[in-house]
Amino acid sequence: MGDTSLRISVIGLGKLGSPMIAVFASKGYHVIGLDVNKEFVDALERGEAPVSEPQLQELIIQYKANIEVTICYEKAISETDMTMIIVPTPSDPNTGFFSNDYVLSAIKAIGEVIKSCNKYHQVVVTSTVMPGSMDGIIRDTLESSSGRKVGCQDNEIGLAYNPEFIALGQVIRDMLNPDFILIGESDKHIGDALEALYLKTAAKRPLPFHRMNFVNVEITEISINTYVTTKITYANMLSELCENLPGADADIVSAAVGSDSRVGNKYLKGALAYGGPCFPRDNRAFAALAKSVFANALLAEATDQLNNYQIERLLRICGQIAEFSFGDVPQIKLKVGILGLSYKPDTPVVECSVACALANKLICNFDVFAYDSLAMPSASQMCDKRVQMRRILVAGGAGFIGSHLACRLLEDGHDVICDD
Fold first, then answer.
1. DSSP, res 13
2. 166: closest CA among 27, 30, 59, 15?
3. Which pTM does this prediction carry?
4. Could you tell me which residues come within 8 angstroms of residue 168 by beta carbon, excluding any fewer than 6 positions away?
5. For residues 346 and 32, which has the higher predicted lDDT (pLDDT)?
């Protein structure tokens, strides 16, 4: 396995941090995880995954000997060589920018421990931050709290920005099999250390590394997601066009379009609007950043507008199906079932969930029943109280939205609803 003597601490044990410590532990590294949420720490101490993610529980059980957890910065920093920060950077609803508050809080606490330690330490920010943050307020806060300068000399500090490109529901798979590694580095020493780390943890060979200054990495991170949202929105636009042209099939057309090497098939399939904790906010942040420096980002703004339109489009389709199937029967309130409430499969996350947004719109004209194997608790907080959370049964009087299972049941002659 090679040298795994590097000792790593991870600040933030949520939906990305917990998989990160499990992946590093599985490759032989000793990892100390820290979180201010004691419930996360207590769960990991018991050998339990604090968040729902495929493979996470198995890795924690198998490699528990390599994992320590704490709420104490003194222990996490003084007993390790490299610290990864993976805390939330929530979006400001007014500006569209990401907030650095949690990152700066962690940086300040890390710096205060480093100040009392007579050793070199490497600090790696993985949380998404706005361009200009790393070489500005983050560097300044680390230097002022530690009393040292960022650099590669003895008793100084290495600073890097190393965002992850992962998808919830497949975080561990993505961490073990990244397409590439993006590193913004204060100096060559910390960049080399991160490169060596990923060469031991990632399976892909050759593994592309893109090492550059901080601002280039910051722009690259949000630019990738902004491009992906544009592609998703284009596919949905194409899908609606095909729906309105007799004989046209969006799946056939998009498969042919994607076979062109200049386009590619990834994300080129008509479906729901994009949602979740990354795509919508990164797209807004890109547009806000462009506006702040007097650049034009009309494409990003149009992408957001078209994405929001998809919910209205779905509502229209539901109304058309109801009218076609049952006619104008105002005395009967039709039942609609929604199978899947999270923003994507295999995750309980409902942030910017299209399914929840759709349920809240449908409730005005339908009785809405909903089910999700992972997201019921969080979805119940997001959905209108009139949306009824149910188990799944085959019964009479409704149809499902968004389920291959439902399609098979309907093809077999069943009506499908969600019920107790």
1. -
2. 15
3. 0.87
4. 15, 53, 276, 277, 344, 346, 347, 349
5. 32
